[in-house]
Specification:
13 helices, alpha/beta, Aspartate Aminotransferase, domain 2, Aspartate Aminotransferase, domain 1, globular, 7-stranded mixed beta sheet, binds pyridoxal-5'-phosphate
């Protein structure tokens, strides 16, 4: 079954959009038939082209089509797919040893990743880290640490939040379909409070900062009880919920309230972190210093790895053996993470996210000017989105969103939807995306919007 003539991906792949068949082509469709017969239907795919190579800003499929990647495998391959240093580090580590279990016999790579996370996450207080496999697992462990450190049980989360698919993180996640429907009962002691969503805030954008925070604080105080709350878990920019940037001042006010009341502030930076928004971490945009930070997605160039980093006194509150897992901080994934960080430094990808992000915003603003169905343009760096509505209203236009996404896919551009109402198109190119390809990808988005008018 091993195909030893696998094509080579990585940054040397031709950086072009090239369609040689319809999308998906005949080979992808044949693989799709096998997939449907073998893979659980509950695991779905946005665009059923089967991939053979990827790198820089493109994904190449089994029919030879080269697609522009505006998704990065959901904000994962920030350094590009099969990035040179990452691929080399993975190969070298795999040849040395692939697993011992850090809880049995440790190794330097795990320690080095924790040192990097401690140094790079917001705040210069003393920290400790622990490593896991998935984002959801990191969030679960954040709640474990917060409960242990405070002796309290309640967890406060926001409207439109997404934190994962395990039982506890489903409870933390807001949207029912597809994440929660039919999967209950959910973990108890989870309380949802209003998110400062500027485009939809009842009092308008101007009232969506400290005023929105005051509403949350009132809810926590009157309905949950301040002294019952272990932690507040939030995304500094909401991801699956629709790239919602909270109104200015909302997060700092919540951070201040949490600090004053012994509530652990947990920033879920799984999608926003590792350079994506033009800073190492999105909390930095508002000077918010969380007590605990979860990382995953962008941290290891595509290998499964997640981290929990936090204040030394909270992290050390947990007894030995209370945190961990068989594969957490796997040596191959750690090698990939260290190579990812090296690549980000070498190519100055945080700055690239900021400068490419300005171009992206310029294009999206221009699109919105000529399209009454684009209600909002938002996001930071290379994490931006447009929200589609029926003109003159805030009524979501999910049908148009689906049509535009599908037109982009047929034209060879990988684009992703998002949003509680399914009416957001999000842009998450790799931070190594060449400028000309970003521009071409956005040309296709513009054509797809024009071909499917509001
Ligand atoms: C993707 C994501 C998760 C879950 O990560 P998995 O690795 O899929 O478990 C949690 N929180 C946020 C903000 C995410 O974007």
């Amino acid at each position: 079954m091993n195909d030893l003539s696998q094509p080579v991906g990585g940054p040397t792949l031709p950086q072009e959009r090239r369609l040689v068949t319809e999308v998906p082509g005949p080979r992808s469709r044949a693989l799709q038939e096998r997939r449907v017969a073998a893979v659980a239907a509950g695991v779905s795919s946005v665009l059923p082209v089967h991939v053979v190579a990827a790198g820089g800003g493109v994904v190449v499929d089994v029919d030879g089509n080269s697609l522009i990647d505006l998704g990065s495998g959901i904000a994962v391959v920030n350094v590009g797919n099969a990035a040179e240093k990452v691929a080399a580090a993975v190969a070298a580590q795999a040849a040395a040893f692939t697993h011992t279990c850090f809880m049995v016999t440790p190794y330097e790579g795990y320690v080095a990743v924790c040192e990097e996370l401690n140094a790079r996450t917001p705040g210069d207080h003393e920290k400790r880290s622990a490593l896991f496999n998935s984002g959801a697992e990191a969030v679960e462990n954040a709640v474990k640490v917060a409960r242990h450190a405070t002796g309290r049980s309640a967890v406060v989360v926001l409207d439109h939040a997404y934190h994962g698919r395990t039982n506890l993180t489903m409870a933390l996640t807001a949207k029912s379909m597809p994440y929660k429907t039919g999967f209950g009962p959910f973990a108890p002691e989870v309380y949802r409070v209003p998110m400062a969503y500027p485009f939809r805030w009842p009092g308008g954008r101007e009232a969506c900062g400290p005023e929105a925070a005051a509403e949350v604080i009132d809810r926590i105080t009157t309905e949950i009880g301040v002294d019952q709350v272990a932690c507040l878990v939030f995304e500094p920019i909401q991801g699956e919920g629709g790239f919602i940037v909270p109104g200015a001042g909302y997060l700092p006010a919540l951070a201040e309230f949490c600090a004053a009341n012994g509530i652990v502030l947990v920033a879920d930076e799984i999608q926003t972190g590792f350079g994506r928004t033009g800073r190492w971490f999105a909390c930095e945009h508002e000077g918010v210093v969380p007590d605990l930070v979860t990382t995953a997605k962008g941290i290891a160039g595509g290998l499964p790895l997640s981290g929990l980093t936090g204040r030394v006194e909270m992290m050390q509150a947990v007894h030995p053996g209370g945190l961990g897992g068989t594969y957490g901080g796997n040596p191959v994934a750690c090698a990939a993470a260290l190579a990812t960080i090296e690549t980000m430094e070498q190519l100055d990808l945080v700055a690239a996210a900021e400068s490419l992000g300005k171009e992206l915003r310029g294009r999206l603003d221009a699109l919105a000017d000529g399209d009454p169905g684009i209600g909002d343009v938002r996001g930071r760096g290379l994490m931006q989105a447009i929200e589609l509505v029926h003109p003159g209203t805030i009524e979501p236009d999910a049908a148009r969103t689906r049509a535009v996404l599908s037109a982009c896919h047929r034209a060879g551009v990988v684009t992703l939807g998002a949003g509680t109402y399914g009416n957001v198109i999000r842009f998450l190119p790799p931070l190594v995306m060449p400028e000309h390809l970003l521009a071409e990808g956005l040309d296709v988005v513009a054509e797809s919007l024009a071909a499917n008018p509001a």
